[in-house]
Design a protein that fits this description.
Oxoglu/Fe-dep_dioxygenase_dom, Alkb, DNA oxidative demethylase AlkB, 13 strands, binds fe (iii) ion, globular, iron, Jelly Rolls, alpha+beta, binds N-(carboxycarbonyl)-S-(naphthalen-2-ylmethyl)-L-cysteine
């Protein structure tokens, strides 16, 4: 089912459910080449979510700040290739939400153990804000915090479940958002954690 969360933000409930197991196998393969790691926050803390990436660009945080890099600073190697399955799924989801021709340059993979969350933030390290971001939730459910254009805007709580896909484009692309700490629950699809895949265009007009 399709639900417009706000202008440009479309929740495709269960869109990736049938593909979840192959998506998870690809996550496993990526993490063998580019292991999950915990980056530092701008405020000097450590991010609760473990992160890795695939495709031409990966998002990193270090002493020089937040940015996209074409090599993994942990391995010194290029990021693992974007699985065709990832790019294909992201393209189909974007199309279903009304965005033609979406070709991601980064597949960021976040892993949340029980208790981990992500504070309210905007995604603004990409050189273009024209393209949407496509996100895929796998494993344990999350309560996603959906804010507005300002940090102080009220947040809606949107449950995201295994297999849900959200396409964030248009005015929603700049909204503040976060993830409430993941609550303990019976394993979902054999997982005792949550993965979130986000597909992004990083460096060129869409
Ligand atoms: C709305 N990840 O990686 S996905 C992130 O569940 C991030 O791991 C969260 O926020 C997660 O930056 C939320 C949903 C999401 C992702 C990117 C967005 C929503 C977005 C970018 C712009 C607007
Ligand atoms: Fe984000």
């Amino acid at each position: 089912e399709q639900l417009v969360l706000s202008p440009g933000a479309v929740l495709l409930g269960g869109f990736a459910r049938a593909e979840a197991q192959v998506l998870l196998q690809a996550v496993e393969s990526i993490s063998q080449k580019a292991p999950f790691r915990h980056y530092r926050t701008a405020g000097g803390g450590v991010m609760a979510a473990g992160m890795t990436a695939c495709g031409p660009y990966g998002w990193v945080s270090d002493g020089q700040g937040y940015r996209y890099m074409q090599t993994d600073p942990l391995t010194g190697q290029p990021w693992p290739a974007m699985p065709a399955l990832f790019a294909d799924m992201a393209g189909r989801a974007a199309r279903a939400a009304g965005y033609e021709g979406f070709v991601p340059q980064c597949g960021l993979v976040n892993r949340y153990a029980v208790g981990a969350g992500m504070g309210l933030h905007q995604d603004r390290d990409e050189r273009t804000m024209q393209a949407p971001v496509v996100s895929v939730s796998l494993g344990l459910s999350a309560l996603f915090l959906w804010g507005g254009a300002l940090r102080g805007s009220p947040c809606r709580k949107v449950p995201l479940h295994h297999g849900d896909v959200v396409v964030w484009g248009g005015p929603s692309r700049c909204h503040f958002h976060g993830v409430a700490p993941i609550r303990a629950a019976p394993a979902v699809a054999g997982l005792d954690c949550r993965y979130n895949l986000t597909f992004r265009v990083v460096d060129r007009p869409f």
